[in-house]
Amino acid sequence: MQLKRPKRLTTVLLSATVLGVNACSPSIGATAPSQVANPGNPPAGAGMPGAAGIGDPDFPKDGNGGYDVDHYALKLAYDPPTQSLSGTASVKAKAVQSLSRFDLDLHGFTVRKVTVDGRDATFTRDGDELVITPSSVIADGTTFTVAVDYAGKPDPVRNSSNLGTYGFIPTKDGAFVTSEPNGARTWFPCNDHPADKATYDFDVTVPAGTTVVANGEMRGAPVTSGGRSTFSWREGHPMATYLATITLGKFDVKTGKTADGIPLYAAVDPTYRRNLDFLYSVSSKVTDYWSKVFGPYPFSSTGGVIDDFAAGYALENQTKPMYGGFDPDESIIAHELAHQWFGDSLSVKRWKDLWLNEGFATYAEWLWSEHNGGATAQATFDDYYADTKAPIWQYPPGVAQPKDLFNGSVYIRGAMTLQALRQRIGDQTFFTLLRTWTDQHKYGNVTTDEFVKLAEKLSGQQLDALFDAWLFKPVRPSQQ
Fold first, then answer.
1. Confidence of residue 44 (pLDDT cuts 50, 70, 90)
2. Contact criterion met (CB below 8 Å) for 340 and 316
3. Contacts of 427 (CB under 8 A, 6+ apart)
């Protein structure tokens, strides 16, 4: 993600069909302990309620415990004039404990019916928690499918401290759908935390003439009947909920392949028609270049979307970065496509490690400038370091502040951490580290501790002091 900030140096921070699945699990089941309804030992076979949060202390109600989602199948219909979204979300999951009940995250909507494995389940609402009680206990290790039939007018998150509005955002001709950090619940019931990744099928019906852009690849041509068209997309690689999208409206579309053969899909609102070729060509060359620097491209297609909604940010939706109401330049496209490795393929286990996404993508902007004969990463580092009174020195990027999650320090000081590391261990080890990091954790979830350990292993150096100074101390680090 990139949010709107003043331009500085060469960097603009506006900071954010292969159907097979990689052999690894869609997520690692990073779940919280069970809720304990009553002390003592429950009767045999009674099960326990899954926790109402996944266990992230900075976002205690995000996600849910007790299960690990494998796949979402979303069959939805949206009517732009009435802003009505309806349909059925089928969530295939595996119980990681014996479950007497469990939660899904859902904001708003009227839930009309819930089934578990085809049998009616009871449900209640508690804020953004959809609390589901199946007709019988779900045994630990059992795979089950919960289907939620729901309808209503999506209500995006508004007036957030960093992002303004996010989630499912109605627009004049459709919707702009960007959900970081926890806006997926504004349009489908889910385990809304990046620690639980899954694959996706999208079947979305809209008025004829409207285009639906979702993650992954289309499963076939749109089907039109009775004045309505159904678009079917599939993302067959594990994906965090906040990266899912069904952005829809009027779009000009260009498809093809990068020079290295990766399928590419670019779409722009007609207001930005002049930028379609630029978005297409830059996305192509950036994807191919990052594939050499960071390791093979992790997904089956690449691209980007410019919509006519002044979001004030861009977001790295998996395979389809979204640019909200502006013409992205090369550095912004380089940032969002770097996220396909850092944030999308490798996702954080807990939001406190967001610098592993944003610091890496910002550093990629510096590398892109360096690659194209502009300012080097070292020159950019030096310029930021020279500002001794910059606010970033009081905000250590390795410590999450939930109400200021996307603070500039997470981007800039996070990127500076990588340049300081590159200075210490040298280019050969540093770029080997990046490629090893993306390879070892492909489609998985990561932590800062894991990155530090790998850096120390490959460099043969003790690096605790460097990372502590750059990530965790509220002071300007000394040059080491």
1. low
2. yes
3. none
Q: For residue 382, give every residue at least 6 positions away whose Cβ sits within 8 Å of its Cβ, in sequence order, or none.
A: none
Give CA–CA dist 441/298, Å, rounded: 11
The answer to whether 235 and 216 have CB atoms below 8 angstroms apart is yes
User: CB-based burial of residue 118 (10 Å sphere; 0-12 exposed, 13-18 middle, 19+ buried)?
Assistant: exposed
Contact 71, 144 (CB under 8 A): no
Count of CB atoms situated within 10 Å of the CB of 342: 25
Which element (helix H / strand E) includes 76? Answer: strand 67-79
CB-based contacts of 181: which residues, under 8 Å, 6+ apart?
59, 62, 242, 351, 405
pLDDT in tens, 62-118: 999 999 999 999 999 999 999 999 999 999 999 999 999 999 999 999 999 999 999
How many of the other CB atoms lie within 10 Å of CB of 70? 20
In terms of Cα–Cα distance, which of 109, 108, 70, 107 is closest to 90?
70
Provide the pLDDT for residue 32.
55
Cis peptide preceding 42, ω within 30 of 0 = no
Q: Percentage of the chain surpassing pLDDT 90?
A: 88
**How many residues are given for the chain?**
480
Of the candidates 254, 441, 230, the one whose C-alpha atom is nearest the C-alpha of residue 345 is 441
Angle CA(410)–CA(9)–CA(387) in degrees, nearest 5? 60
Model confidence at 188: pLDDT above 70? yes
Other C-beta atoms within 10 Å of 26: how many?
23
Q: Which of 270, 305, 302, 293 is nearest to 377 (CA)?
A: 293
pLDDT digits (tens, 9 = 90+) for 387-427: 999 999 999 999 988 989 999 999 999 999 999 999 999 99
Tell whether the model's pLDDT for residue 35 goes beyond 60: no
Q: Quick one: three-class SS letters along 168-210?
A: EEECCCCEEEECCCCCHHHCCCECCCCCCCEEEEEEEEEECCC
Judged by DSSP in three states, 253 sits in strand
Residue carrying structure tokens 């330049």 = 329
Q: For 310-314, what is the mean pLDDT?
A: 93
Contacts of 407 (CB under 8 A, 6+ apart): 162, 395, 397, 401
Phi, psi of 215 (to 5 degrees): -75, 155
Asked whether residue 207 carries a pLDDT value surpassing 80, the answer given is yes
For residues 247 and 320, what is the distance between their CA atoms, to the nearest angstrom?
Answer: 10
Residue 219 sits at φ, ψ, to 5 deg, of -90, 0
In whole angstroms, what is the distance from residue 323 CA to residue 240 CA?
A: 19
Hey, what amino acid is at 134? P
Mean pLDDT of 142-151: 98
Beta bridge partners of 231: 204
